[in-house]
Here is the input.
Amino acid sequence: MADSEEGQGWMLPLLLFGGFRSIIDELHAELARQGHPDVRPAYGFAMQAIGRDGATATELGRRLGVSKQAAGKTVDRLVELGYAERVADPADARRKLVQLTPHGVDALTRSTAVFDEIHRAWAQRLGPDRLAAVEADLRTMAPGEGFRVDASGWFGG
Here is the structure.
């Protein structure tokens, strides 16, 4: 290891987080311009986890790596904002299924388009081959079984 690199390991997570934040912040600014000013990162992750087929609060909590209660609070807010609704689960009438509303589907559809635009901008800035290499390297380093998105839990929240 070169002398200039020693003691700099702490920079890697900050740089990765900075890249992540720049993408997420750009996404949410654009979503606000496109009619979704209330979408927050946690809501976007939750809507992705709900998906087109819906999920119970327990399933949502497991997919997000949070408690059923935390998932329920997020669902409450998504319902309040008109992005999701609770419906009877056709497989088990005792359970409620959380499904996206057309407003929620619109937010996810727009998110996909914005992420694609951000990806194109990164490819233009870094070069497509270099960006592909970064993505491949991150896939190698990311846990294969998925990862939790409850970053607020890291800070005692």
Strands lie at 84-89, 92-100.
